[in-house]
Amino acid sequence: MTYDNQRSYERYGYETQVQYAYSGEEKYYDAKMCNYSNGGMYFETPYPVEEGSKLYIKMKNYASSGSGPEAYETYYGKAKWIAPYAGSDTPYYGVGFQYKEPVDYS
Fold it and tell me: 35: exposed, middle or buried (C-beta count within 10 Å: 0-12, 13-18, 19+)?
């Protein structure tokens, strides 16, 4: 069984700028969302994130009339997994973010 077959929701490629903050804090960090599903999203950031951290994600391109992830201004959930990448000039961290509750984008 491949990892993709273990997913609960279909994943869609979608790149956009987002910001995230730790629960209970007001400082936001820049990140790039690379894909999403009804259960979460994957984003990349130059800042280390601790696995299990509760986070708020803010969509920089929020549009209430949108039909994808930009249809919601913020998301709340946790960093389900973290993958550090150091192979480029600028190291970064891949973050698998799980929504607190699944989202219906239809």
Answer: middle
98 vs 12, 33, 86, 91, 103, CA distance in Å? 15, 13, 24, 23, 11
Q: Pull the structure tokens for residue 75.
A: 């998301």
pLDDT confidence band for 66 (50 / 70 / 90): confident
Instruction: Give the pair of three-digit tokens for residue 60.
Output: 């920089």
Total-model pTM: 0.88
CB 77 within 8 A of CB 98: yes
Domains of the chain, each with CATH number or no CATH: 14-99 (2.40.10.220)
At residue 69, the pLDDT reads 93
Q: Dihedral of the CA atoms 15, 88, 28, 36 (nearest 10)? A: 30
